[in-house]
Amino acid sequence: MSKRKRAAAGDVDLLRALELLRARRAPYAGLLAAIVDDTLARFPPAAAGSVVEIGAGTGQLGEWLPEAVRARVVHTDPSGRALRLLRAATPEAATRLGRAERLPFGDSACGAVIGLCAFDAAVEARGGDAATLVRELGRVVAPGGRFVHFLDMATLLEGPFEKLAASGLCPIPNVFSDPGDSEWPLDIVLLERDWLDAVLDFAARAGHPLAATFGPAFQPFLARPFDKDTAAASFKAIASSGERRRALLAELASAARLSRENGYPPLKPLPFHSGRYLLSVLETSFRESGAFEVEEARIVARAAWRARSPEDAATVRYRSLCLGHQRILDELPSRLLAGTAPPREGAAQGAILVEAGVFVFVARRLGA
Questions:
Q1: pTM more than 0.85
Q2: Residue 207 region, left (φ>0) first, then alpha (ψ -120 to 50), else beta?
């Protein structure tokens, strides 16, 4: 396939993914916009210069920006096709073709750089090189200006999976508990690769279904050399299917119990929060740059009662989205993202509680 055809195919995949994300965000859009508005009010751009968005895609973040900031924004993205769709929806929007590591702006020309689920994507595109991206942000952001990043979906997994594989660990979706029971969704648990390899071998010899059902799914994590893209795709195929998750829990627990009875070590899953992994990358790379001070690095949540919409089942009383983990429940969970529910006065009868959680990262450019 030619380079041009590969780029076109990549654009198609990108736009399809962006539309799926837009649909998933739709029930929470008002809360997400409130989080963006409040963050930019507390950490405003410097008075002079453009506000540059990296990884703008088709304009999701632009729709949530307060008017005063939106009027200053220049949306950038490597995909010309995505930017054309952005301009078609918002003709007055200013756009520039460009990558986050090579922005088409002069030194100290920007009052702020903002992004939605963009930093991890830019780092992954550079093979894990966060330092180059931070240097470029330090170049274009004026002293006193800011980098403001929002993550409302799960971070990309390819980079962390490669590092985990090098440490002899195999990630699987957290099928043992509700990921939302933790402040940072506990979306992944880790198994020791040698333990998993041994238990799969035992299961195959014992005729246990774990080997046949999930052996192929685990193979990318056990293979040498390790292919991060294949491994991430295999992980997502399980994580996105409730039926597969339930089957994995039942078969893994059964095989672990049977193997333990035959002298194998016990199952010892280790917690891994993918959002906190990105937090560590951001904090480390910005602090080590010497050009920024970190002002905010936490999950910010908002909640509101709203009338049940047509897509909500009659029994639904609660729904939430936090770093890609969605809960749709018939009763309020024991742990709410916002800590407590807002007053219900004025809420329609049969209203449901809706919550959104976003990892907000803010770093201020140092200098006179």
A1: yes
A2: left
